[in-house]
Amino acid sequence: MRPRELSATLSLFPAKTPTLPPATHTNSYALGGRDVLLVEPATPYESEQRAFIEWARSLVSHGRKLVGIVPTHHHRDHVGGLATFSRELGVPVWAHEETAARLEPEARTCVTRFLAEGDTILLDGLRPETWRVLFTPGHAPGHVCLFEEHTRTAIVGDMVASVGTILIAPDEGDMERYLVELERLAQLNAFVALPAHGEPIDEPTQLFRKYIDHRLMREAKVLESVRKVGPNGADAASLVPVAYDDTPPHLWPLAKLSLEAHLAKLVREGRVIAAHRATDAAEFFRVV
Ligand SMILES: [Zn+2]
Question: Gene3D superfamilies annotated for this entry (predicted)?
Fold first, then answer.
């Protein structure tokens, strides 16, 4: 059943979205006891949007006040309802500048405040809450998380998920930065992390560290695959079956994106050399 009350001042509303399988839904959250912040204006589907608006209006009818809408980042399964909700509910959108820059023009006009690292959002109520903005790029250039010190609750967007995996794509992702930000989340020592996909995560520190370990394991396999192909090097497509030999082939198209993000990090670190083949300008990789 939705919405779900996670506590007196926190509720979760999962809505169907065009997200990456096996996930099918994106979680939106309402934070705060009197002032209410809505996080993830996610769904683009009309019937789901109607249900979301009904939920948001029910919060208001209980004497609460919607103060803002925050998308954690610009991906389509996070901002599909942004313009509609802002307009229908009369609530401004607060987003990181890099997120705002990637929104459709109509949605961009709804943004009235740019969120940046260290900003705080004070939500008044019986027990006021202060949510701190953490700028956590890596998965997406404008990705932000929110952290409340008293309840040690973290809104983590697409930094981790309890359903599916997090894609770090080479175009707008940054593997190196993603790992740094995961470590920063681990150091929060949060009691609970609320992801955009899947169930709330109790004691999430271990999971953040598991994600880091998993990526470093994969990085080692990527480096090893480059080493195996020898001095002539290979392109990304031919490295996938080696670096992802433990992954079913139907996932290799997605794996290739991750592999390219790993390669970009290894190249930046000077551990792998990227060169262009003279005949067809294809990029290929070899060890230093
Ligand atoms: Zn995303």
Answer: Ribonuclease Z/Hydroxyacylglutathione hydrolase-like, Winged helix-like DNA-binding domain superfamily/Winged helix DNA-binding domain
Task: For residue 281, report the distance from its CA to the centre of ligand 1, in Å.
Answer: 31
Closest CA to 222 of 261, 183, 168: 261
Tell me the CATH number for domain 4-203: 3.60.15.10
Spatial CB neighbours of 36, under 8 Å, sequence gap ≥ 6: 30, 59, 64, 65, 66, 67, 123
5 alpha carbon – ligand 1 mean position (Å): 24
Amino acid at 97: E
- Report how far ligand 1's centroid is from the alpha carbon of 158 (Å): 5
The pLDDT, as a whole number, for residue 1 is: 58
CA of 139 to the centre of ligand 1 (A): 7
Which residues does 288 contact at the CB level (< 8 Å), separation at least 6? 270, 271, 272, 273
Which pLDDT score is estimated for 22? 85
Q: What does the pLDDT read at residue 34?
A: 95
Ligand 1 centre and the CA of 263: distance in Å?
20
The residues of the chain scoring below 50 in pLDDT are none
